[in-house]
Q: What sequence folds into this?
């Protein structure tokens, strides 16, 4: 797959302090929504350390706080309590302009609900993060265009978001997250709307980016995708309940266990409606 | 570089709401149109006053009945002059004998009805004067000649070009009989249009009728009521000395100093120009209020726009737009509206100014500072009224904006 190579120079790793520190360190992170009687902890004391170059899959039932966690990690939201150390720096002490810079240069965020700008066409949506960087607009568009081509959307560049199918919209959202060569990718169910072939295209792209030394956190409900991950985290009620390192083999075996369990369930229900996964 | 991007974004969002943008901008268009037009016209008026009164007549003294000369407006109102006359024929004779004086032209103003056959005008200023007026005012004849002082009291009249063409055909005017205040006069000449709507004469030469003083006094019981006397000096370098001797002569013959005032043409022009400046200022203040209203309209629409686009702002911030970049985009949108409106208003003002200047034979002045004001004021208005909505957009919290339902 031909994409422009990822940059090696990052605004994080310029300082010697941060080069050895983990990319992400969370200490007793809490996020409480609401006040008083209605107060509810979406994150209830999360401790997590992620080294550079990990590929982490996050799993857990709906409402367990996965999206909330990604929002914290992506500097979109502030925690109620606890510490978030990003590349050796306490996020609470980073100013908003610098946070914007980090979001713009270092983080690629794939939203669960895509969040494209309805008024902009597909090409401009994908180019959006680059428009807040230096450089010529047509070069930015070339890059966005190349990514769209990789995802099989070359002839949808001038479509508006409402003219796309769910899966196409999802691929556009992923292209936008990758266009700035981020060193941290936060993906909230990036293949939730995709068939196996398109999932594979997306996962191959993520794998390629992972191999270049970048860090990926991906929320998924699909056990098949665990084969791409190096670590899987299970969440429940705002806490991490299981944290498993996956070796190559282990990854496959866990994935297979899930798949066989699901196949059995499907057989019991007598339907093939949800057939998905690798052939 | 983010600016060109913000620019195209701002332009795009304005285009997306075309009707709204046009209606909102209209306020600024009207405000700038009025302001620029006032500046253009007052500039033209000023230029014509200064040129014709001051520069072309730097060897001229004006003697006017006092009390009328404090403000330019009254100084140039013939009727006012006619009502407060204290100057007499003997003043003309006395001044004409002074050594520094070349020409002396008395002007007695008679507001009256002028008719010819079926056609008539009610408010024509008839000027009773002598044969030195054409020299003093630099009048040229289209046809005929100015009456000489030797042939006074013969009911000859000379018409301004516009009056002549209104009453009779210009080229057939010579020898025709017209009626002034019930007396019959014969047209012996037509004065060429001089490009001077308000001039030294205190009357629009184009629309005036000129008769001899001897004929004029017959309307006023044989007593000349001279409104003003125009004196041309032999040497313009000696104008001050000439003025002193004129004043001395008048003081000798009049009991009260305050009965008359002697001005150079420059002073007379200055008084009028000063009056014009006051009128212009008042008009500008009113026009500024319309621009203020236009500015508030833009602020209102920008606030609506920010509210409508909360989600878009959230997405932009999520992918790394800084506060400043968001501010820039929304401010630019407001600025594009005010500057675009300013440009359109300016162009319309020039178009209207051109038509009006043509109609009233004013020079069309166009100086850089009218452009500077026509575009600078909308710039300030855009910054002033665009800043708050833009700041509100910039302050938006990304996660709150993203979660907002729409
Ligand atoms: N702004 C908010 N105000 C109040 N409660 C919130 C808010 N955002 C999220 N929550 C709550 O926090 C909990 C975690 O939400 P979150 O979106 O992180 O779940 P999730 O794990 O991503 O679920 P899913 O798999 O369905 O996407 C939910 O119970 C949700 O109701
Ligand atoms: Mg979620």
A:
């Amino acid at each position: 797959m031909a994409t422009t190579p990822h940059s090696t120079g990052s605004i994080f790793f310029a300082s010697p302090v941060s080069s050895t520190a983990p990319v992400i360190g969370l200490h007793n992170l809490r996020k409480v929504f609401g006040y008083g009687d209605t107060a509810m902890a979406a994150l209830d004391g999360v401790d997590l350390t992620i080294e550079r170059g990990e590929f982490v899959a996050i799993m857990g039932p709906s409402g367990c706080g996965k999206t909330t966690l990604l929002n914290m990690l992506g500097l979109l939201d502030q925690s109620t309590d606890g510490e978030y150390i990003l590349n050796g720096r306490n996020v609470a002490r980073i100013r908003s302009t610098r946070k914007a810079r980090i979001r713009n240069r270092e983080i690629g965020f794939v939203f669960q609900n895509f969040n494209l700008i309805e008024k902009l066409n597909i090409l401009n949506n994908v180019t959006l993060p680059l428009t807040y960087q230096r450089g010529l607009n047509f070069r930015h568009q070339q890059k966005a265009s190349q990514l769209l081509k990789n995802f099989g959307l070359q002839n949808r560049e001038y479509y508006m978001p409402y003219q796309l199918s769910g899966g196409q919209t999802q691929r556009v959202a992923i292209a936008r997250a990758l266009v700035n060569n981020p060193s941290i990718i936060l993906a909230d169910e990036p293949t939730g709307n995709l068939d196996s072939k398109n999932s594979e295209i997306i996962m191959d792209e993520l794998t390629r980016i992972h191999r270049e030394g970048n860090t990926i956190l991906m929320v998924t409900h699909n056990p098949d995708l665990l084969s791409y991950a190096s670590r899987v985290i299970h969440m429940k009620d705002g806490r991490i309940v299981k944290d498993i390192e996956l070796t190559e083999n282990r990854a496959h075996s866990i994935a297979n266990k899930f798949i066989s369990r699901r196949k059995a369930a499907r057989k019991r229900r007598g339907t093939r409606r949800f057939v998905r996964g690798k052939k | 570089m983010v600016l060109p991007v913000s620019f195209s974004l701002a332009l795009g969002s304005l285009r997306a709401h075309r009707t709204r943008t046009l209606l909102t901008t209209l306020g600024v268009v009207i405000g700038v149109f009025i302001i620029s037009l006032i500046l253009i016209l007052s500039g033209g008026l000023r230029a014509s006053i200064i040129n014709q009164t001051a520069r072309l007549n730097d060897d001229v003294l004006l003697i006017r009945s006092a009390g009328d000369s404090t403000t330019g407006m009254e100084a140039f109102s013939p009727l006012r002059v006619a009502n407060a006359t204290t100057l007499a024929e003997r003043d003309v004779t006395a001044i004409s004998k002074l050594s520094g004086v070349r020409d002396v032209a008395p002007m007695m103003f008679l507001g009256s009805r002028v008719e010819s056959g079926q056609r008539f005008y009610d408010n024509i200023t008839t000027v009773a004067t002598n044969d030195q007026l054409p020299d003093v005012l630099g009048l040229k004849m289209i046809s005929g000649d100015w009456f000489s002082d030797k042939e006074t009291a013969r009911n000859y009249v000379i018409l301004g070009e516009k009056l002549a063409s209104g009453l009779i055909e210009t080229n057939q005017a010579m020898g025709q009989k017209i009626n002034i205040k019930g007396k019959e006069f014969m047209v012996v000449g037509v004065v060429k249009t001089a490009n001077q709507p308000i001039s030294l004469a205190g009357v629009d030469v184009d629309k005036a009728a000129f008769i001899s003083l001897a004929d004029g006094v017959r309307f006023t019981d044989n007593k000349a009521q001279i409104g003003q006397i125009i004196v041309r000096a032999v040497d313009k370098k000696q104008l001050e000395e000439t003025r002193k001797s004129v004043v001395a002569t008048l003081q000798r013959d009049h009991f009260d100093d305050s009965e008359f005032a002697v001005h150079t043409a420059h002073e007379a022009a200055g008084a009028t120009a000063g009056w014009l400046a006051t009128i212009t200022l008042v008009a500008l203040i009113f026009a500024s209020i319309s621009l203020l209203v236009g500015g508030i309209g833009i602020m209102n629409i920008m606030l609506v726009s920010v509210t409508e686009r909360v989600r878009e702002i959230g997405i932009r911030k999520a992918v790394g737009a800084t506060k400043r970049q968001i501010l820039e985009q929304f401010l630019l949108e407001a600025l594009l509206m005010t500057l675009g409106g300013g440009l359109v208003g300016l162009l319309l003002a020039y178009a209207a100014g051109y038509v009006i200047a043509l109609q009233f034979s004013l020079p069309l002045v166009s100086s850089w500072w009218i452009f500077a004001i026509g575009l600078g004021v909308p710039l300030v208005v855009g910054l002033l009224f665009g800043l708050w909505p833009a700041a509100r957009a910039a302050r938006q919290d990304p996660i709150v904006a993203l979660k907002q339902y729409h």
Observations:
- Confidence is low (pLDDT under 50) at residues 1-9, 13-18, 271-279 of chain A.
- The radius of gyration of chain A is 19 Å.
- Residues 248-269 of chain A form the longest helix (22 residues).
